[in-house]
Structures are given as C-alpha cells and as structure tokens.
Amino acid sequence: MYMIDIKDKVNALKEIMDFYSSEDSYISFEGYELVDNFNHFDNIVCEATDILPRQTSWPKLNFYIIPLTTEASKKILELIKEKELLHHQEGIIHIQISKNGERVFIGCDNLDPECTWVSGGITSDYLDSLKQHGKINSYVRSNKQ
Is this structure's pTM higher than 0.85? Predict the structure, then answer.
C-alpha cells in the first residue's frame, strides 16, 4: 500500500480509474452538491457498503457508488472536468474504489496526501511513471490498513 500526494487531481484520478476499471470494480463519491451530477449513471447505488463506507458521518453528504467500467470511467471524467468537481469545497470530498471485493483506493478530504492511498496491484514502477508525468508529487510505502 502507498500513500500518495496527488499533483494533478483530474489526470491522476483518470489514471487510477483506468488502472482499476473492470466488470467487478466500483467507485464511490461523497460530497456536497452531487445530486444533479451523478444521478443519471446506470446501476447507481446511494447507500454505503462495508467495502465502500461513508467517510463523513455528519453532515450527511451525498453518496454514490457507480460500477467502474471503462465506459463509466470516461463519463465520470468528463463530468468531473466539466463541473470542476475536484477543484472546490462544494464538489467531491471523498473518493473510493473497490476491485474484486477489496478497497484499493481511497482519497479523502479533497485528495489530501495524509489520507490518500492506493493498493491492489499498483507498483512503485507505476507510481514512478505517474510522478514522472507530473500526475503525483510523491508516494511512500505505508502499512496503514
């Protein structure tokens, strides 16, 4: 597992979504004004799960889980760019990804480096590539669970 310091939020998230997208992957978004943004996705769930729990208990934020297919990943990225959902406090606060029943990415508090980490097959070589291309500032191996 690696804690990561994201430099380019949109493009780093694109790379992470692309890495994990599959028929058994899900992404959750938690934040303020998200109702009109995510409610049109297919197979959306608005309740937390054991694998993708809410990260904020109060105030209760909008919460959505969406299957993370390649097609959904493209639509999510377009929406995030169009609405600038990663660049203001009223947008997305917490993002999580699960794959094959395991949480493999979490980015809390607007992708704060103290609470953003990846696991589930991502290697240091992959993270080095993200760093080289200006998508992350740094990463460090962590034993956090």
Answer: yes
